[in-house]
Design a protein that fits this description.
3 helices, 223 residues, SIMPL domain-containing protein, 25% helix, 5-stranded antiparallel β-sheet, Alpha-Beta Plaits, 3-stranded antiparallel β-sheet
Length: 223
């Protein structure tokens, strides 16, 4: 039976964000499908106009999805006084929802974008996320470091057992990350900050470093 040693390692690194992603949701409930389509196009045009005023080019804006569905109600009735209740589904209007995404490497656009979208009416909500455009280099460096740390510990265990560490048999790994998001909610909205003299001022954005964790589980043979 082949002798092996299994050991894991977990490491974490912090990396400065280099990308701002803003997800904008446009949604309303109206009477007809035609009204929904017209309202969406009107709101979308308004969002694009306000973003353009904030210095966001069309190349940074993409459409993610659009959905249109009926708003239904269940009605219960009897055909006669002593009869069972029957259920009937009726359409009470329609609901639409569309999402667009703004992606930019200019992190200082956060405040102008916030102000622009805050002026787009109640049908428009949004959240903002500071992240890393390409996490591959960061992940590769963490993975290499995690395996090195696991190997150091495996060598200690091998030596303590009177054996030598042989070739590696298998490696499993996974990543997790954290970052800072801002939501279009009262706690973050411009009017929600006590002591702010001008309601048109955006909150201060201080993106925290993105935390990326790497965990590996390695199996080495023993010689």
């Amino acid at each position: 039976m082949e002798r092996t040693v299994k050991i894991g390692s977990s490491v974490e690194g912090t990396f400065d964000p280099d990308q701002l992603t803003v997800t904008v949701t446009i949604e309303e409930s109206l009477d007809t499908k035609e009204e929904c389509s017209k309202a969406y196009n009107t709101n979308l045009a308004h969002v694009r106009d306000e973003l353009a005023k904030a210095g966001v080019p069309d190349s940074d804006i993409s459409t993610r999805r659009f959905t249109l569905r009926p708003h239904t109600e269940r009605l219960y009735y009897k055909k006669s006084k002593n009869d069972y209740y029957y259920a009937k589904t009726v359409i009470e209007g329609y609901e639409y929802s569309g999402k667009i995404v703004v992606t930019t490497s200019q992190l200082d656009k956060a405040a102008p974008i916030w102000l622009a979208l805050s002026d787009c009416g109640s049908a428009v909500t949004f959240d903002m996320y500071f992240g890393i455009a390409d996490e591959t280099p960061a992940r590769n460096s963490l993975l290499e470091y995690a395996v090195q740390e696991a190997k150091k510990n495996a060598e200690i265990l091998a030596k303590a057992s009177g054996a030598e560490l042989g070739p590696i048999a298998s490696i499993e790994h996974n990543f997790s990350r954290g970052g800072l998001s801002y939501w279009d909610d009262r706690i973050y909205a411009p009017t929600g900050f006590a002591g702010v003299p001008d309601e048109a001022e955006a909150p201060e954005f201080i993106p925290e470093p993105v935390r990326i964790s790497c965990q590996v589980d390695c199996i080495w043979t023993l010689q």
